[in-house]
Every structure is written in structure tokens, then in C-alpha cells.
Write a structure and sequence with these properties.
45% of the residues lie in helices and 18% in strands. It has five helices and five strands; from the N terminus they run αββααβαββα.
Length: 161
């Protein structure tokens, strides 16, 4: 079941990429049923907080008509950042399963571990590395493409001079 739900998150990430968003997807599950899913929407909404996790949490709260997501699990393709980790803690998600680690901004063990910090009032269970190669591959491919476009644009500018 864990990989099945992560595959849904991967589909959300791929859908986000269609809109030139960083391909990250998140799914929230309660009692074995997907109640919310989302991909990054920062570019579309022109808003820094529209990470996949935040959008999925917002949707799940509306579905349950409650901010308290007790009994729910999140599956996300990339290790949550500080902002998303805070939202996960505050919404009281039971578990977080993530795919690729984020060595620059990951706050579930890579840069720091906010999710399992006992100073907070809630600590979800955290399991990383779920379909990590596939999740990481989406991001690597996306950013390689972005770098290639940037390089081509620089070359074009030189040719125009």
C-alpha cells in the first residue's frame, strides 16, 4: 500500500511539472482511502507557500471539515521543508512517508529533523526513501532541463551580439 500511495503522489508531481512547477506531489490518506492529493502550485498561484504538502493539507482539512488530521498519513515525493514540516506537525498527521531526500532544505532528517523533534507537541512517524530513485529522478530530469534551457539562452544571447 505504501508504494501504491507514493505512485499517486508521483502522478501529482508529474502533473505539476506540466505547469512548469518543480515536480513534487503529496497525498493524504485516511483509513486506506485517499482524501486529498496535490502537486506544487507555487508558479501557478505566484505564492511561496503553495507547496504540494500545504495544498494537500488544506484540501484534507476541507474534506474532513477539521484542521486536526488525526488518523491520516501523508505520502510526498520529496522530503518536507521547514514550512511543510511545521504544517505537518500543526495538523497532527500520524505519519509521513517521503521519497527523495533533500540535502538543501529537508527537515525530516537531511538538514535537520523537525518532524521528530520532541520539543514540539506532536511527532509524526517518519519513513523516508519510498521509491526514492523514481522520486529523485523526476527532480533530476526537471532541473537538468532547466539548466539546459538556461545554457541555450546564454548561447543565443552571445550569438545575437
Amino acid at each position: 500500500m505504501i508504494e501504491e500511495f507514493m505512485r499517486i503522489a508521483i502522478a501529482e508531481a508529474k502533473n505539476a511539472e506540466v505547469y512548469d512547477e518543480v515536480p513534487v506531489g503529496a497525498v493524504i490518506v485516511k483509513d486506506g482511502i485517499v482524501i486529498a492529493s496535490a502537486g506544487n502550485m507555487k508558479e501557478r498561484e505566484n505564492c511561496a507557500i503553495y507547496h504540494a504538502e500545504i495544498v494537500a493539507i488544506t484540501k484534507a482539512c476541507k474534506v474532513l471539515d477539521n484542521w486536526y488530521l488525526d488518523g491520516c498519513d501523508m505520502y510526498v515525493t520529496l522530503e518536507p521543508c521547514a514550512m511543510c514540516s511545521g504544517a505537518i506537525i500543526n495538523s497532527r498527521l500520524d505519519s509521513v512517508y517521503y521519497g527523495a531526500s533533500d540535502m538543501k532544505t529537508g527537515c525530516a532528517g537531511s538538514v535537520c529533523n523537525l518532524l521528530e523533534n520532541t520539543s514540539f507537541n506532536h511527532q509524526p512517524k517518519v519513513i523516508g526513501g519510498v521509491l526514492a530513485d523514481e522520486c529523485g529522478g523526476l527532480l533530476s530530469t526537471y532541473f537538468k532541463g532547466k539548466r539546459a534551457i538556461k545554457k541555450a539562452n546564454k548561447l543565443q544571447k552571445k550569438m545575437d551580439i
